[in-house]
Amino acid sequence: xxxxxxxxxxxxxxxxxxxxxxxxxxxxxxxxxxxxxxxxxxxxxxxxxxxxxxxxxxxxxxxxxxxxxxxxxxxxxxxxxxxxxxxxxxxxxxxxxxxxxxxxxxxxxxxxxxxxxxxxxxxxxxxxxxxxxxxxxxxxxxxxxxxxxxxxxxxxxxxxxxxxxxxxxxxxxxxxxxxxxxxxxxxxxxxxxxxxxxxxxxxxxxxxxxxxxxxxxxxxxxxxxxxxxxxxxxxxxxxxxxxxxxxxxxxxxxxxxxxxxxxxxxxxxxxxxxxxxxxxxxxxxxxxxxxxxxxxxxxxxxxxxxxxxxxxxxxxxxxxxxxxxxxxxxxxxxxxxxxxxxxxxxxxxxxxxxxxxxxxxxxxxxxxxxxxxxxxxxxxxxxxxxxxxx
Length: 390
Prior knowledge:
Layout: E1 4-5, H1 16-28, H2 38-57, E2 65-68, H3 71-83, E3 92-96, H4 101-112, E4 116-120, H5 129-135, E5 140-144, H6 158-170, E6 176-180, H7 192-195, E7 199-203, E8 214-218, H8 233-236, H9 244-256, H10 260-279, E9 284-286, E10 296-300, H11 306-315, E11 318-319, H12 335-339, H13 344-347, E12 350-354, H14 361-389
Parallel strand pairs: 1-11, 3-4, 3-5, 5-6, 6-7
Antiparallel strand pairs: 2-8, 7-8, 9-10, 10-12
């Protein structure tokens, strides 16, 4: 049975054009970009051409983009790279309670190293800039706030936080701002100059590119201690022979991104939510409806197990999820929904639907039918179990 895929926030299928570009690169661009011979220099040329393509997409100079193995490494490099590079006895970092595990776990490790961490709560999934301001201290060296949430799609006020950081730096404080842009990149417009970030993480596999390649924008003048050693690759910021075929495929995926994707995805999502509300009025939307990624819908199905619904849909050939793919296997409810004030039961009843450019209106109709059918089936089974006990 062909799968109807609605889990694009976890990963996207590779675009055919991207797969072709990567296959050609694997075959033809085999040199080490650090080598001086012709195959090596061809690889270097393709690496730098791809760097310009990806950097221009976020309005960054090519020299300020570091290629990594993905979003997790980019987040680790940003957080550890800045925090460990500042020679201060007392260091403080601000983040939020709804970040991706790649940020949360990095901050926990910094805490074990003696860095104090403030985790700011959210309301409706969107952070209040005043909360960041209230947590600022003279020893604050880094703020890390995601651009868009991977579970509920809420978009954070990154530009306003960037302005706040610039104010503090103008007053003489050494402070930097990192944003995990993995979910926002390619779905909404990203301009690192306008946002005012010093570091910004991106990943290829969220935009129909390959897994295993990503990038970190590092604004010129931002201190960055490497987290791995063994060479002067990436201008000394990330040791290791560059993944040239992956980088070339990443650049091709960027070239395929279109401004029209956003309006198309929001139309699919809005149609899905409207149809779900008609079919099941009790369904609730998690996250700020007016401030979300265009492709993301997180719905609560009261008194229903989200895990059971995901499994039932999978048996019907429909792929959705309960949240972050990096937290799969966890029996705990979503930390994002709990941080937003949902109860544990509400969090355990919530399912994420994330759409992609290859989804169609016909598929969304099929999704609505599958969800309503599975929900009614699970409710019927629950009633039968209750009758059996009584």
